[in-house]
Amino acid sequence: MLHFAPESTWSIIALGICFLLVCVFEFANGFHDTANAVATVIYTNSLKPKVAVVWSGLMNLLGVLLGGIAVAYTLVELLPPDVLSPPNGNPAVPMLVALFGTALAWNLLTWWFGIPNSSSHCVIGSLVGIAIGDSFLHARDLGHSVDWNQIWKVLTTLAVSPPLGFIGAGILFLIIRKFVHLPALYQRPEPHHKPNPVVRALLVTTCTLVSFSHGNNDGQKSIGLIMLTIIGLMPATFALNPQVPVQYDIIRQDVQAARPLVAEFDRYSFKSDALASIDRLEKGAEIHASPAETRGDIYQVLSGLRSVASNPAASNEQKKEAGSLAKKLRPTVEYAPFWVRLLSALCLGVGTMIGYRRIVQTLGEGIGKAHLTPAQGAASEVVGAGLIMTAGYTGLPVSTTHIITSGVAGTMVASGSGINMHMLTKIALAWLFTLPVTITVSAILFYILA
Q1: Alpha-carbon radius of gyration of the chain
Q2: Which residue spans traverse the membrane (predicted)?
Q3: Model-level pTM?
Q4: Could you give the angle at the alpha carbon of 264 between the alpha carbons of 261 and 270, nearest 5°?
Q5: 372-386: buried (b, 16+ CB within 10 Å) or exposed (e) per residue?
Q6: Cα atoms in the 13 Å half-sphere on the side-chain side of 101
Q7: Which of 15, 73, 294, 372 has an alpha carbon within 20 to 30 A of 300's alpha carbon?
Q8: How far apart are CA 82 and CA 99, in angstroms?
Q9: Cα–Cα separations (whole angstroms), residue 383 to 188, 377, 410, 431
Q10: List of residues 6+ apart from 190 with CB closer than 8 A
């Protein structure tokens, strides 16, 4: 599969299949993650389901459009440079099939059982598995050929955010209960009865915040996946940013400045590849290389600069210089067309409209021993939106599902109603098994296909 000629019939067919896979995965992502944004507002009858999911979809779209792409390429950079930009521009079909096939299968399995699993964990586990599979494919040392610093940064964020959601939502609920004495906030929602207008306005507002923040963070992840597809399979068209003229003279200057840093402080086995890429870029990529090869060389240099920035032996000035050079090089290869943002939001929104019911019921009735009250839903959503949006603007991927779910659990503990340990165990098991399962499956699948 590595030898499909770019823009050949087989490449176009592969593009169609992978494009379908990424759209279906984002559709399934809507089942899981976006459903968390509408769970409270639907469960409390504050909005009708159709109105809620359409409104949530619009706010997701706004979040995607107003957000950046830092999260998207934080995930993309989990992949080794040679997988991210295959040699000679060959389509990255094994990587794309392993990524989407693994993540989609696990997402659908957990959704079927109504478990609020994290699509982010599915994607990240699959990406890590591909990096490991690539190491076996080329007989490389795992300790040096996988950018573990980048991986641990992402995994640490995923691990820390749910406890923050649990604690923050619990504290906010206690503050609301102490200072806001509105009985409707603490009563179980009655079926087919609209809540108090003040409560309704509050929950619509918190739904809006979570939806916007979800688009800002999770929407970026889908942008990264779509860009992986179109760049990996159509490198001649999408390898370099068409909206930013490639300034080869400036690129040559930047890579010349990067050479001594990479030569001294790059700790990974890609070091020789990065130095070879610097050589090619210095000689004139505009004359001797295709856009895909130029993109591959720039990503090799970026990989080397990331290694410099994480090396304890480098001084603060050298790390700062490496970061500055990487910032200058990224716009040439890290971008997202407007239509990609629209496609991301559309897939998330349609998935939410069709598959939200299972997750709404789990959040409303399954996490605590008592049913969710408006105050608990509002507290978990306000804290969740804050954490998700902060992570989105700082380029760190987090799990909407686990933050909101943890927040609901935190409010249940704070209210004294207790937690449904059976459901909590199911969620915890999904959390524990998602990364090992997706890493293993995607590594094996990538190795076999490649």
Answers
A1: 23
A2: 12-31, 52-75, 95-115, 122-139, 151-176, 197-216, 222-240, 338-356, 428-449
A3: 0.81
A4: 90
A5: bbbbbbbbbbbbbbb
A6: 18
A7: 15
A8: 16
A9: 21, 10, 11, 20
A10: 45
